[in-house]
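User: Phosphoribosylformylglycinamidine cyclo-ligase. Structure?
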Amino acid sequence: MSPITYKDSGVDLELYEQSMQRLPKLMHRTFSPRVMKNDGGFAGLFQLDFNNALFSRKYEEPILVSGTDGVGTKLKVAQLLGRHDTVGIDLVAMCVNDILCCGAEPLFFLDYVAMSRDNPPLLEQIVAGISQGCIQGDCSLLGGETAIMPDLYNGDDYDLAGFCVGVVEKKQLISGKQIAPDDVVIGIQSSGFHSNGYSLIRKAVFEKAGLSVDDPVKELGQTVGEALMTPTIIYSNLTQKILRHYKVKHVVHGIGHITGGGLLENTERILPPNVDLVFERNSWEIPPMFNWVQQLGQIADEEMAHIFNMGIGLTLMVNPYYANTILEIAQSLGLKAWTIGRAQAGSGKSRWK
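Assistant: Predicted structure:
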């Protein structure tokens, strides 16, 4: 019986090393002066001197804020389309947008890529997207891990997970506890489905309607694949511009990242027990891709609102006096924004008017 090697089992260490050599340039382009280079080391290094001039602002009582997430079955669409350079943006967005809800300034990001086999060009595409997401999110891609697991994944299948850390001044922490009756709810546009509901989308589009990723969708002016692979918006520039504009004032009382569970569930989770949010139907533009998927799958209105963001990717619960200025800040960044609801005395519920 001849001896076997690691390569025989599906892991090629020489090819793996080729993959690793492609990544440092994608990381370095995201580095801020706070990153201490440690190429080839076992961990990433980040300076935590929050009163150093390297920081965009000083912190008296810094609170670290962290979040982790994945991309979900949107990866299956990437596989069908053969395009992998945008799902990394989604990965960063799903993590960074969560920590923004606490008022945090993003600091750094780590990724985890699990693959069935070594594939340097594929890995480079994936990490290029993560790198671009970090630039959009104003955070440093500090490190990551690539795991080759031929017995858990098949062919070119892969999975992604991400982890980010940010910082917020303790007295400026946004938790939702400050939400009060008469606060205004501002909704910020999504770019589409973002990275939620893709199991339902794939069933409606590919299984029920029998479409392929290359089929044109006349009402969208795109192919199926182009519509479904639209990257998630990262809202770092928006939240940081608003919070820096008002500095220490408690203008923003709550922020909700609208993901799985839709508008009502994701805003209700941060409400005080004595306040309700009441939303106005038809108070914002619903992108046509939602109606397209709904018609293909014959999905009920209630199910759509429960699963998808329906065109609102982020909500801000704000003092009504500052609402117009915040709308103007969003619009100055090229983001559509609407007043979509108000807070009133209640029992901690989000509901439709």
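The mean pLDDT is 93. DSSP finds twelve helices and 14 strands in the chain.
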